[in-house]
Amino acid sequence: MDKSWMTMGKTTDGRLSQPYIEGVNAFINFARAIVDLSDNILCPCIHCVNCYRQSLHTVRIHLLHYRIMQSYINWYNHGESHVLNENIHDNEMSDGDHTDGIDALVGDRIREELRNATEDEKVCHFDKLEKDAKRELYPSCTDYSILKFVIKMLNVKVMTNLSNKRVDMMLELFIKVLPKGNLVPRSTYEAKKILHDLSMSYEHIDACKNDCALFWKENENLDKCPVCEVPRYKDTRVQGKKIPHKVLCYFSLTPRLRRLYMSSQRAKDMRWYIDKRVDDGIMRHPVDSEEWKEFDLQHLDFALEPRNVRLGLAIDGFNPFGNLNNNYSMWPVIFIPYNLPPWLVMKESYFMLSLLILGPHQPGNEIDIYLNPLVDELKELWEEGVETYDAYSKEHFQMRATLLWTIHDYPGFGNVSGWRTKDYHSCYTCNDEPYSEALVSKIGFINH
């Protein structure tokens, strides 16, 4: 399809020209095939930048009034297939949703191993990861490698809550059904062992059942809470492995941030807000906010390195069992790296789970106890940083990170910040001199 008309939209006269108008009409006709249930499509004008859905009529008006994005040559959001090419502009790059990402995952891990390991370890890790990523599950199998099969199988195990014994039985069946010479692992243990080198693990930290303290650092070897002296384990009389009352799942943030720079394309995307952002006074991304700009003025040493990471922190709780079990709470703590461009920053694949707080009841105001490991890591990333390899510029740099925003509802705001969210002093703008009045069964804050 002829797309030369796209370059004519830079001027008003160009947008009023017959070739440009015909090109817009051709684009609208092409995009009709992928309208949603409301007959809307993503608008590729320079204001909506494929972030907002509009009607076909509105999209046509936007393209004639504002112009189409010059870099949107591959219309992958409107029906064209993705083009995977390092030379294509950022907007055209795939965000990874159309593939399983196995090859990229292995490639990232190999790059890290080659940088950190000794020469012998380099060869060992490289060979193992590369072979697992490329070895056919059985002779002439084109769809699944052994690594892809293991990841998919363990994902099914987690999503359907299968026991190890059931998975072992399924693997045994696969071994018998598939052609001879297949590489299906013989047990769940063997399957997990294959994934071990990808370093996707997390740390279990025991916690007091009353949310008083973590059995971590100086408390790691204690059998009773140092605050309330409640036993650490449910049954202290059993021998062998004991079951703690509460457990915190801690996913270290640092290796996940470093992983963003192991891919040359993602490392390039992490500089988008410096290299490609259009500063025209329109708010399209947090980088356009006054808070971001004020932070840069106050911390020039941080701002001078564009690869330093700006983070948002989202916290909320939910019951994973719906109404079937009211005595259980799950609180995920998720990071969002805001260096990424608008079309990637809020993608699920870039959300970084850092903490998973599990237990029979929500942590409430004691959530700060569970945030301690995360606070220590954030302090280290802010003060010292960590050496990171940038695959785009082919160099090492000292990556630092800062937390700019927290995202939560109003009760969560009270838990995280310690601010009052009830009664006459719940307005944090008024502080200790609130403009509040008692209404019928409510408190109203006036003069806002």
Structural overview:
- The radius of gyration is 26 Å and the shape is globular.
- The protein is of the alpha+beta class.
- It folds into four domains: 4-81, no CATH class; 102-198, no CATH class; 251-410, no CATH class; 418-448, no CATH class.
- The protein is 34% helix and 15% strand.
- The longest helix has 16 residues, at 119-134.
- The protein starts with 11 loop residues before the first helix and ends with a strand.
- Residues 83-100 and 117-123 have low confidence and may be disordered.
- β11 (436-439) and β12 form a beta hairpin.
C-alpha end-to-end distance: 54 Å
Task: Determine the fraction of residues in helical runs and give it as a percent range.
Answer: 25-40%
Strand content: 5-15%
Summarize the main sheet. 6 strands, mixed
> How many structurally independent domains?
4
Strand sequence of the main sheet, in spatial order?
3-4-7-6-5-10
Provide the residue-averaged pLDDT: 81
What is the general shape?
globular
Q: Provide a count of the helices.
A: 17
Q: Which residues sit in consecutive blocks of at least 5 with pLDDT less than 50?
A: 83-100, 117-123
Topology pattern, helix = H, strand = E: HHEEHHHHHHEEHHHHHEEHEHHEEEHEE
Number of strand segments: 12
Q: Which structural class matches the secondary elements?
A: alpha+beta
Mind telling me the C-alpha Rg?
Answer: 26 Å
